[in-house]
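Sample pair:
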Amino acid sequence: MGAEANSEVIALVKDLFFLAKIGETAKQVGAKIRFADSTEDLISCIQSKPRLIVLDLNADGIDPVLTIKSLKETTASVDLPIIGFIQHEMSTLIDSALQAGCDQVLSRNAFTKHLPKILTGKPWH
């Protein structure tokens, strides 16, 4: 299916625990992961046509809804799936992220549980 051509996952995550967790899991499952430092960096990374974008909706220094909207307005990423994860049940932020174009929002626990399959593109839900 040509999955190798666009198997990379781009992640915008600021939490050091999750940076390490995602990086280590990617190594264990053989997934390609690239971390972006900012919304602008994330948008520039999508030129490589990744398979998936992972976004920490609680990341310090970013507006997650604006980031999602910016991604969905960028031609190169309009069809890219976005999975967001969130620290707490924050229904307003979850609803806003979904309305902005986030394809899936998971709690941090669910994200961690399904991370190997998310990174490898295997069905997990």
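The two ends are 21 Å apart (CA to CA).
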